[in-house]
Specification:
By secondary structure, the chain is mainly beta. 6% of the residues lie in helices and 50% in strands. It has a 38-stranded parallel β-sheet that branches. The longest helix is centred in the first third of the chain and has 16 residues. About 1% of the residues have low confidence.
């Protein structure tokens, strides 16, 4: 008890030094931390009183069972070490909340353990734990109508500004762990998340938010980890993510799937993606489906993303970029959804190991290319081991398909498949294969203005040809280093192939170029 009193005194001194001299202990409002007493009214009373003049609501050591709490302006919830907020396992303790802000999902997402709408200067801090006990709301299948209903988030903030979530441990949500919808000035720092008790167990969802910083966080989730969405006409923009350790059975870093408003000015750096500690999956695969996924499929524009210094360990597909046309509206009677745009992405200094044989892909749709993509200093080690026919079968377009890196199955290229793209630059890319793989390393189809420079390929890549170019134009391929014997360096197909230049490429290939169906030798530039 003396230690707890001393801690509160020190905390009070810290708060006073920051200009906030009001502190409210939930015990003074009748809360009981025995893990059994329902404390919703007591905690809410402390929040309500604190909100009148602003202050910090203290959760001392103990287990405090509660239903929905409404966080209000100028209030901080502070959980001391060994303080635990336990979400009720009775769905009736989570009243429905319908935000004024309209978004995709507003007809089925209605509940949360901690909820705030149109509030400002709110925070959750401390070394304590918030446990949503979300396994109590489990559904048996994701194909059941209404499958998202009656599964509360842990945190749900809508149209709030100056939001801070810092240092706490979040676990066991019935749905996404955190949903920040149309918020401004969000700071998430030093938190830990472990979310493996239900479907849709994301780590964090930034949705149509502006001016966001996420740093020094550790997350391990069944569904997507760091997730940036746009479920309305509002962009997710001006977002910085750094120094995080992420694990997911699905996608560790993801922009999408919902993309109505789009994404702009996002920087993600200095992160590690590693296998989950949880080997039993609800979704996905134990090793994770993708390391980095960028997807525009419901309209919207993706413009200006920089991803740098990422280590990716063991996921099936390290890099996946997709411009598709699912065209799902975020509200009724929205009308036709135009195809979005995907441009200006720079990814550099990536080291990935243990990648599966599916391969990485960068794909748009016919007439709507992915544009201005730069990959530099990329090292990927694939499992390899795929043996295919000499000339691979066409890959289906799947324009309206859900954007998942596994959507095409095993691709005809062992490392990268690029289709419907413009202004693509790969430089200093090092590719290795654990087992012999007979697929071409890269296949590019309908790509204009393509630069493939300083590509190094390990000895277990043994296809008939290393590079496949199908209806590609304005191509420069230079300074490749091939460490295996192959029949040909490149194969050119298609009547629209033109202005292909091959320069200073080294390796034991019998022929420099093969010409396939429809291709003319004049496509090759001296």
């Amino acid at each position: 008890m003396k230690i707890q009193v001393l801690f509160i005194l020190l905390l009070l001194a810290s708060i006073i030094s920051q200009g906030n001299n009001r502190i409210y202990n939930i015990l003074d409002y009748g809360a009981i931390g025995d893990g059994q007493t329902m404390n919703t009214k007591a905690i809410q009373n402390a929040i309500d009183v604190s909100s009148k003049e602003g202050g910090t609501v203290i959760f001392p050591a103990g287990e405090f069972l509660t239903g929905t709490l409404y966080l209000k302006s100028n209030v901080t919830l502070h959980l001391v070490e060994n303080a635990i907020i336990l979400g009720s396992t009775n769905i009736n303790d989570y009243p429905h909340n319908t935000p004024e802000y309209k978004f995709y999902g507003d007809s089925w997402v209605k509940q949360s353990l901690i909820y705030a709408e149109k509030q400002k200067n709110i925070a959750i801090t401390g070394k304590g734990t918030i446990n949503g006990q979300g396994g109590a709301f489990k559904v048996t299948t994701q194909k059941k109508p209404g499958r998202y209903m009656n599964r509360p988030y842990v945190l749900w903030f809508v149209e709030c500004s100056n939001v801070k979530v810092e240092d706490i441990f979040l676990t066991n949500s019935g749905m996404w762990m955190q949903h920040y919808l149309a918020c401004d000035k969000v700071r998430i720092q030093g938190i830990r998340v472990y979310n493996h008790c239900n479907y849709n167990n994301d780590m964090v969802d930034i949705d149509g938010c502006k001016d966001v910083i996420i740093s020094n966080c550790i997350g391990d989730t069944d569904d997507d980890a760091l997730t940036i969405k746009s479920t309305s006409n509002r962009k997710s923009e001006n977002i910085i993510v750094n120094n995080c350790i992420l694990s997911s059975h699905c996608n560790a870093i993801k922009c999408g799937t919902e993309s109505s408003g789009g994404f702009k000015n996002i920087v993600i750096s200095n992160c590690i993606i590693r296998p989950s500690e949880q080997k039993t999956t609800i979704y996905g695969a134990p090793e994770g489906i993708s390391g980095i996924t960028l997807g525009i499929v419901d309209g919207g524009n993706l413009d200006g993303i920089n991803i740098n210094n990422i280590i990716i360990d063991g996921v099936q597909v390290p890099l996946y970029m997709r411009l598709g046309n699912r065209a799902r509206p975020y509200r009724t009677n929205q009308g036709e959804i135009p195809v979005g745009s995907f441009r200006n992405v720079q990814i550099s200094n990536i080291y990935a190991s243990g990648a599966d044989s599916i391969s990485c892909s960068i794909t748009g749709i016919a007439g709507h290319p992915i544009e201005n993509i730069s990959l530099s200093n990329i090292r990927i080690s694939f499992k390899g081991g795929v043996k295919v026919k000499k000339y691979p079968a066409p890959v289906p377009e799947l324009d309206p398909h859900y954007p998942e890196s596994t959507m095409f199955g095993i691709l005809p290229a062992s490392a990268f498949y690029i289709r419907h793209a413009k202004n693509i630059d790969l430089c200093q890319v090092h590719l290795n294969f654990e087992k012999t793989d007979t697929r071409p390393v890269l296949i590019c189809d309908d790509v204009d203005n393509l630069r493939l420079r300083q590509i190094t390929i390990g000895p277990n890549s043994k296809p008939a040809y290393m590079l496949g170019l199908i209806n590609c134009s304005n191509v420069a391929v230079s300074e490749w280093a091939i460490n295996s014997s192959v029949e040909a360096f490149a194969k050119i197909d298609g009547v629209n192939s033109r202005a292909v230049g091959l320069y200073n490429n080294k390796g034991a290939f019998e022929k420099e170029v093969l010409f396939g169906k429809g291709a003319n030798k004049s496509a090759l530039t001296e």
